[in-house]
Amino acid sequence: MKSNVETAEVAQPYAQALMSIAQSQNLTEEFGEDARALLNLLKNSAPLQNLIDNPFIQPEKKKAVITQILGDGANQYLRRFLQLLVDKRRIFFLEQILQQYLALLRQLNQTVLAEVTSAVPLTEAQQQAVKDKVLSITNARQVELEIKTDRDLIGGLIIKVGSQVIDASLRGQLRRLSLRLSSS
């Protein structure tokens, strides 16, 4: 089981190293796209996650799978970095390293991450309205949305930016009303 503190301590230097490589080669955005794609793949593929997490699978097999996943058109620096993670037995932390790389990329680009939970999928116009609202609150240059749906909200949405939470959900309004009524 991975501890959050230990994971952060291990993942941070590797994420910074990946950022350093990306900056030296002017590939920060390309690496960001690859990191998002790999995170999505890890999230949606239990067999791949199991392969990466299993310490008994031979490193050469892990490298072969990584090479196959990346394909021939993959960036050689990223491929070598991932192979280094396998050699150093740190591929176990790949998800956290990629997440921290994306956090460093957002910091570099003065972009904030807004985690949006809505009762129903948001339209493009609604997503743009959320971005505009977050931009006005944070004074960032750009906003990256991470959107989830939760039918239990009944209606509305919850926006989380860093430690700030804006609860504009119907469930949140009902909860606040209930608290007011019970305290009266």
Give a written overview of the molecule.
- By secondary structure, the protein is of the alpha+beta class.
- The chain has two domains: 4-107, Orthogonal Bundle (Peroxidase, domain 1); 110-183.
- It contains eight helices and four strands; from the N terminus they run H-H-H-H-H-H-E-H-E-E-E-H.
- Strands 2-1-3-4 form a four-stranded mixed sheet, sandwiched between helices.
- Strand 1 (111-118), helix 7 (124-138) and strand 2 (142-149) form a beta-alpha-beta unit.
- The chain is elongated.
- The model has no long low-confidence stretch (mean pLDDT 90).
In short:
This protein folds into two domains: 104 residues, N-terminal domain of the delta subunit of the F1F0-ATP synthase (Peroxidase, domain 1, Orthogonal Bundle); 74 residues. Helix content is 62%, strand content 15%. The chain has eight helices and four strands.
Q: Order of strands side by side in the largest beta sheet?
A: 2-1-3-4
Shape: elongated
Uncertain parts: none
> So what's the CATH class of the largest domain?
Mainly Alpha
Tally of DSSP β-strands = 4
**Distance from first to last alpha carbon:** 46 Å
Largest sheet: 4 strands, mixed
CATH topology heading of the largest domain: Peroxidase, domain 1
Query: Mean pLDDT, rounded to whole units?
Result: 90
Number of helices: 8
